[in-house]
Amino acid sequence: MKKIIRLELLKLKNSRIFLVITLAPVFMVFQGVANFLRYYDIFTSRGQNMWYQIYLQSSVFYVSALFPALIALIMVSLARIEYVSGGLRYYLTLPVKRSYVYAAKLLVGCMLSLLNVLVFSLSLLVAGKVIGAPGEIPYDIILTRLLLAYIASLPVMIVTFLLSINFSQMGIPLGIGIGLATPSLLVANTRYWVFYPWTYPIMAALGGELFKNTYFPFVAGPLIFVILTFAGMRWFKEKDVLD
């Protein structure tokens, strides 16, 4: 299993995916800080916490748009490698358990998604220090909330992963993944957000009145992930290599 994971990472070595998942969150933080500094007087006029304002300005579009889009890009990249030149057919004829191949690809996708979140968190910490945000660093917000958002985004990861390995045309899963993320910010502001998993990371990272005193995303998210993971694994094990 470890060898397969290393192989999956090695396949991505010459791709630009690592560059994208590390630079994109840095750019998002840069945009958030720039917006904060532009409207500094408004964001601090009532003594608001600078750290929280930086976090808020950077996180709104990160968790609602950029992160889901990057998840889709990561999963599509993992699948695209195999579909190019019929590589998937060859891969599935090798003397290796299909369940291991499936699990390794999914695990690598989840690991790269986590790397993206960690880079975003680190960028927030650096940005706060650079602009001289006063007070103690609110790790409970910058680290804990974003890690909870990662857990809440597990359904997004598995759905996008299953779409990616099911379609040889990579534009389809990428388009669906981005399309499903588009209305998430609007849905998150309604009571129906519980029925739309793309809102879970938003609610976990940003909270709000509709999110108070509920652990629903942290229960439903992993549960959906587990169910779809095993359902997808069963399908993958029975997949015709000539499809």
Strand content: under 5%
So how many helices?
A: 12
Question: Main β-sheet: number of strands, strand sense, barrel status?
Answer: none
Q: Find the count of extended strands (DSSP E, 2+ residues).
A: 0
Low-confidence stretches: none
How many structural domains are formed by the residues? 1
Helical fraction: over 70%
Structural class: mainly alpha
Rg from C-alpha positions?
A: 19 Å
What shape does the CA trace take? elongated
Separation of the first and last Cα atoms: 25 Å
Averaged pLDDT: 87
Reading the helices and strands in chain order gives: HHHHHHHHHHHH
Could you explain the architecture of this structure?
- The protein has helices spanning 2-11, 17-38, 40-44, 50-83, 87-92, 98-130, 139-152, 154-166, 171-181, 184-187, 200-206, 216-237.
- It has one domain (2-237).
- Helix content is 74%, strand content 0%.
- The chain is elongated and about 65 Å long.
- The model has no long low-confidence stretch (mean pLDDT 87).
- The protein is an all-alpha fold and 243 residues long.
- The two termini are 25 Å apart.
- Helix 6 (98-130) packs antiparallel against helix 7.
- The chain crosses the membrane at residues 20-40, 60-79, 100-127, 147-167, 174-195, 215-236.
